[in-house]
Write a structure and sequence with these properties.
Blueprint: H1 2-21, H2 27-36, H3 46-54, H4 68-73, H5 76-85, E1 89-90, E2 106-108, E3 118-119, H6 122-130, H7 132-146, H8 151-160, H9 166-176, H10 181-192, H11 196-199, H12 202-208, E4 217-219, H13 222-238
Helix pairs in contact: 3-5, 8-10, 10-13
């Protein structure tokens, strides 16, 4: 028992020391983290959908799934709301992510997760694929109204491989150039479609090479921004669905 307690105390000490070694981001960096991890909440049947979600309890596999009869009773727009605010599958990340310094000065290789330790089920991603045109239209409608693209919308766009939304996203990005994760969406779309000029670039090797990880990034500056926009526009012009 004493050995167990000593081991636990040592682990706790190591954890505290590791926390002390974490960087201490600026307020601007922390504010940007809040901005980039914000989920867009659609208004369609929102109160009804939230009430349904509030009654869910995880099953033995930690899945919080709306029963099929209730899910099928929802309209398309209500299903859109449900899927955009609720991930059904539990996927715990055991490794805590340390704070990121100067997060607002980076273009990341990957998007942050929309639902913490949960993610979309196959049923939910299938909804996006089966109703692709409607989902894209609803995302555009919501973004036009709110003037922002939530991380859940970005994840859905990448999941659907929605290349056709590139011009719209670029227009949104150029309004204030604040949301650098829109540039990440462009990178992920080019990667998913194996766009050779991008795959052959040094930035691709840096972002998605053998040494890449969840936090891999390139510096946000005018040169990198313009290069991504130029490449994604060339990709879009030559894309054949």
């Amino acid at each position: 028992m004493r050995m167990l307690m000593a081991g636990l105390l040592m682990m706790a000490s190591l954890f505290v020391n590791a926390q002390d070694e974490y960087p201490k981001p600026s307020k601007e960096s922390l504010d940007y983290n809040v901005y980039r991890t914000k989920v867009s909440v659609p208004p369609y049947g929102l109160a009804k959908v939230k009430a349904m979600i509030a009654k869910l309890t995880p099953n033995d596999e930690e899945i919080e799934k709306l029963p099929d009869n209730l899910y099928n009773s929802l309209s398309l727009r209500e299903k859109f709301t449900y899927n955009m605010i609720h991930g059904e599958i539990y996927s715990q990340n055991c490794d805590p992510m340390p704070p990121v310094e100067d997060e607002h000065k980076k273009i990341f290789a990957q998007l942050p997760g929309a639902f913490d330790e949960y993610s979309w089920s196959d049923k939910q991603t299938q909804f996006f694929d089966n109703n692709r045109d409607s989902v894209i239209a609803l995302i555009k409608e919501s973004v036009t109204r709110s003037k922002r693209v939530g991380v859940n919308y970005k994840e859905a766009i990448v999941s659907m491989n929605a290349v056709e939304i590139i011009p719209f996203l670029e227009e949104v990005y150029l309004r204030d150039k604040k949301d650098h994760d829109i540039l990440t969406v462009f990178l992920l779309l080019m990667k998913a479609n194996k766009y050779q000029p991008f795959l052959a670039s040094s930035s691709f090797k840096k972002l998605y090479g053998d040494d890449a990880n969840y936090g891999t990034h390139i510096v946000y500056n005018s040169a990198n921004e313009q290069l991504i926009l130029q490449r994604v526009n060339d990709f879009y012009k030559n894309y054949k669905r």
